[in-house]
Design a protein that fits this description.
The chain is an alpha/beta fold. It has eleven helices and 24 strands. Helix 7 (186-203) packs across helix 8 and helix 10 runs parallel beside helix 11.
């Protein structure tokens, strides 16, 4: 018998294991379960998703690359497939200026150019200090005031804006400046904001400026900063006020957002709100936003889609945090639309990825909210509604969901008889943004009458569903799709 030496056997084993690891394709069990629990209705088709079509109403987070919590080169292809028009990044002063007066933008060039290569526009948050000037680079660290550090910051900002003028779409000034002790000193941020605006505008007078990047919705803090800016006649320099509404129930944030909107508009009609960073974990976490709740990939997807539905309802741009899981020093954060491993490698696209992509397809850039829809139903839960109109002002759809509770992990839907007032569609479709499937509605006993639409046994749950006029939805034939419910469906 010809026996191979032990070291050769081990070598072949390791080589085989490496090949298996490289070639392995992972699939999403949660996406498979969502497909298998899809409504038992006649399928009219699948949403026609065009990755080349970028929707500038929506943005996705590509943050923390300045601290190496993710590897853009490993996940960038997923950005191109999502359908968003913008991606948020952070500038990383400490990484760009490791020695005083010596800049290294190579790492940032790769990210900016990489985002642009997918026809997505980066917007950059200029944020965090630099330890070589005694200013810490961590989230929530004290905002610097001394002139030496401020001058170094201004030189850095000038270098960044000069380098990326024409590539970066918008400039956001700082990230969550109201955290920790900073909330007591709004004048510190007002000074930083004012000085930074002056530098940006000196380089690019047409630059789009986003202020605040505030944690949650701090009305009094925003008021104090805006008063300081008004005193310096600087409020007209702001195009957006951004905020991060991390609420366990995303619908609970809406009243406070409307108060913030009214506050900001009291200073200028030209300033718009920007939901600049918000998302949901996919597992229970002990740190960061929305911790200590038993999240899952099911509830994450519902949460993200409800955040988008609420932001659309008041017509503000919106950014979902984040594209991939992030490897923080103390934990792996699970907010990603794409799940990653401890090597920062993408594993699979979560249901939230497909949900966000389908929302970008359904809520097109030219579509506008048309207010809440009055309704009558036989259900016991309150239904949130948002009408959708096209660029010509025609009402073409309605979003509906249960928004009274924190999204849960159940895949069950509730059959509800409902009359939507002021809605008439020639051929209404039921569209599920999680799966991208469109279904024919049985309206033989209901249908259009007296300017209303009556639907029996409409399947609702704590995630947005769409009732769309068929003429406004582009579909592809499901016979061209892979078999429903197989693991191959979930491979990317």
């Amino acid at each position: 018998m010809n026996k191979k030496p032990l070291f050769l056997t081990l070598l072949f084993f390791l080589a085989g294991a490496l090949c298996c690891r490289v070639e392995a394709q992972h699939w999403s069990l949660t996406m498979k379960n969502i497909q298998l629990k899809a409504p038992d209705m006649e399928v009219a088709g699948m949403l026609a998703v065009d990755p080349a079509e970028k929707n500038h109403r929506w943005s996705v987070g590509c943050e923390t690359l300045d601290r190496d919590y993710a590897d853009f080169s490993k996940y960038k292809e997923h950005l191109g497939a999502l359908g968003v028009g913008y991606a948020r990044i952070q500038s990383g002063w400490a990484k760009c200026e490791p020695k005083k007066g010596k800049y290294d933008f190579g790492w940032l060039d790769e990210i900016v150019d990489g985002i642009c290569s997918y026809d997505v526009k980066p917007w950059m948050c200029l944020c965090y200090g630099n330890p070589i000037y005694g200013a810490q680079k961590s989230l929530g660290s004290s905002i610097f005031e001394d002139e030496e550090t401020m001058e170094a910051w201004c030189k850095y900002v000038k270098a960044v804006v000069t380098r990326y003028k024409g590539k970066v779409a918008m400039w956001e000034i700082w990230n969550e400046p109201n955290l920790h002790e900073n909330v007591k000193y709004p004048e510190k941020y007002a000074n930083l904001l004012s000085r930074t605006v002056d530098v940006i505008k000196a380089v690019d007078k047409d630059a789009v400026i986003i202020g605040f990047g505030a944690s949650r919705i701090p009305l009094e803090y925003v008021r104090s900063v805006m008063d300081e800016m008004k005193a310096e006649q600087k409020t007209e320099c702001l195009d957006y006020v951004s905020f991060h509404p991390y609420y366990e129930n995303p619908d609970d944030a809406l009243p406070e957002i409307l108060r913030l909107k009214a506050l900001v508009e009291s200073y200028s009609d030209d300033i718009t709100l920007f939901q600049g960073e918000c998302g949901c974990p996919a597992v229970l976490e002990w740190g960061h936003a929305l911790r200590y709740n038993e999240w899952s990939e099911y509830s994450q997807a519902k949460w993200d889609l409800r955040r988008m539905a609420n932001d659309f309802s008041i017509n503000i741009p919106s950014s979902i945090f984040t594209l991939v899981d992030l490897q923080y020093p103390n934990m792996q954060q699970s907010f990603g639309l794409v799940r990653t491993n401890l090597l920062k490698e993408p594993v699979y696209r979560r249901p939230s990825f497909y949900g966000v992509r389908n929302m970008c397809t359904l809520l097109k850039e030219e579509y506008m909210p048309d207010g809440a829809v009055e309704y009558e139903s036989n259900g016991s839960r309150k239904i949130n509604t948002v009408a959708i109109r096209d660029g010509e002002g025609k009402r073409i759809g309605v979003m509906l969901w249960f928004g009274d509770r924190i999204p849960d992990s159940s895949l069950e839907r509730t059959a509800t008889d409902i009359t939507l007032k002021g809605v008439e569609f020639e051929e209404p479709l039921y569209v599920d943004p999680l799966t991208g499937k469109a279904y024919r509605l049985d309206i033989k006993r209901g249908g259009n009458f007296e300017g209303n639409l009556k639907i029996y046994n409409l399947l609702l749950w704590d995630c947005p569903v769409f009732i769309m006029d068929k003429a406004s939805v582009k579909l592809v034939d499901t016979t061209a799709q892979k078999a429903e419910g197989t693991t191959n469906d979930m491979l990317y």
